Amino acid sequence: SNYTMLCWSVRVLLLGLLLLTVTALDSEEQKKENDDDFSATPGRGPPQNVAVTASATSLTVTWDPPDEPPLYYTVTAGSDTQVIYGTSVVINNLQPCTAYIITLISVYQDESLVTYSSATTLDTVPPPPQSCWFDDITSTAMTLYWQDAYINCAITNHNISWSWDVLWSDEAGSDVTTNMGNHIRLRDFSPYTNVTAEVASYTDAGYGPSTSCWNVTSQEKMYKNKNIQDV
């Protein structure tokens, strides 16, 4: 009986050792597979220490080579892909105020190793508004409207300047203000006054070019011997 129990104990011990050996071999094989996923050859790797400098319409990308330099690199941002034999590239013709994912690949004879970076292009001054016009015209006031051009950067303000000259006298003047919306009421003109306005849009990079438009206030009709005005 004691001999039988001893035999069973030895068998259980051997089985446990076998299971531990199999588990260790599986772990080692999995580690080897994970290492192979990164690089099959020691010393190879994707571009290292990637740095990106942004302007409004370009990204300058620099990096360090891995221990074993590749045959060449490919760098992609947006729809632009370039083959590079050095360790820097300038990617042009990008949209301002836009986030880009940058893909960098080390290309070897038999494998390619990739890393990623990201950057956002800077603000740029906006284009001029697409149009401006006057409406709600009376003899002493008119409302100036404008439509901003499309741009990725946020337009946060507008500079509005206007000048006027009364067509039946030598009276003239000018003024300037800012406005965050898309229209402004201009007041206190004389009847039959020519008004010319210019509108420029603003982003964090500054004001862009302006768009101009003009119109004339209504004429008042004076009735003889009556203090009546048609406005």
Automatic annotation (TrEMBL):
First and last residue of the signal peptide: 1-24
Region (Disordered): 30-50
PROSITE patterns recorded: FN3
Residue ranges annotated for the Fibronectin type-III domain, each copy included: 46-127, 128-221
SUPFAM superfamilies referenced in this protein's UniProt entry, alphabetically: Fibronectin type III
Keyword Signal: yes
A Pfam family hit: fn3
Spans traversing the lipid bilayer: none
Lineage top rank: taxon: Eukaryota
InterPro entries: FN3_dom, FN3_sf, Ig-like_fold
Keyword Acyltransferase assigned: no
Keyword terms: Signal
Annotated protein name in UniProt: Fibronectin type-III domain-containing protein
Organism: Cherax quadricarinatus (Australian red claw crayfish)
